[in-house]
Amino acid sequence: KRPAGAPDKSLARNVTKVGVVGAGLMAGQLALLFVRRLEVPVVITDIDQERIDRGVAYIHGEIDKLAAKGRLSADAVNRLKGLVTGSLDKKAFADADFVIEAVFEEMSVKQQVFAELEQYVSPEAILATNTSSLSITEMGSKLKNPERVVGFHFFNPVAVLPLLEVVRGEQTDDAALATAFKVGKQLKKSCVLVKDAPAFVVNRLLTRFMGEVIATIDEGTPFEVADNALEPLGLPMSPMVLLQLVGPAVAQHVNETMHAAYPGRFGLSDNMQRFVAARKAAVWITDESSQSAAQSASVGGGG
Ligand code: 3HC
Q1: Is residue 153 among the annotated active site residues?
Q2: Which of 54, 103, 253, 292 has its CA at 20 to 30 Å from residue 89's CA atom?
Q3: Closest residue by CA, ligand 1 atom 8
Q4: pTM for the whole thing?
């Protein structure tokens, strides 16, 4: 059955090569999923060779883990590993028909990535973004062919969670959207079409929910009490453990986007800002001593 709002699938193009921009953890998870499900060449890039090598090594390591669990044959291991390459040179993306970026969550960085890609890929190649919260329309606004830009938002851990938010920007055309849905299906994800609104749907809800847990801690409820309060609901993990999984910096970026869009409804937390600045789980308030550690680790944090 066609997902609600998806264009006619006859418009979808075939994807024979995938490019992934970024070789960090999220990008690595995406490259792994693409090579496993599409079985086409996947090329990854980043700002230096060391990052690229680490990204390729991560993907190879995950392929080995799947083999160790008995989910891939020795043949498949060699085939999939052979399909993954890294390149500093964007020319390697020239024949990619679907490129996804998972770089730093900053509009100008993502716009620059797409502008650079546009010099190499064909005008029909899909430029997808795994942004957690930024506008798809704005991301494509400086391109010659913004109609091929589409939001393709996965959830952590990518290999496990079935949901995929597909986002249509104002200029996204039906062929790009149909291709995105086709690829989402090939990746065995449950695709939903969502509006190009700040943080789309899931992160909008999640940010509100996490924000209230954080505010409760900020107001003095002990960390463990606030974090464990919803245990009887049977959530797969507590809110603060989920925050660790998502990455505090990513969560903070999403929160800042929501705060900018709806300042009255999404607050900012000094503790959260300090936590991200210090980049250590231990500095969140778990007791008096770690509270002072958080404060001393503060980078220009007030209050
Ligand atoms: N990375 C990759 N795979 C992981 C993983 C991780 N961090 N954690 C667990 N897994 C895999 C395991 O390997 C296992 O796979 P297998 O069945 O092939 O062996 C499978 O997940 C189940 O793992 P476990 O049995 O060890 O653990 P659980 O049953 O407790 O499940 C969980 C772990 C899937 C992470 C579950 O706790 C969960 O669903 N948590 C909620 C996650 C969530 O809400 N994510 C959305 C965050 S929002 C987001 O990502 C958007 C972004 O823009 C911010």
Answers
A1: yes
A2: 253
A3: 157
A4: 0.91
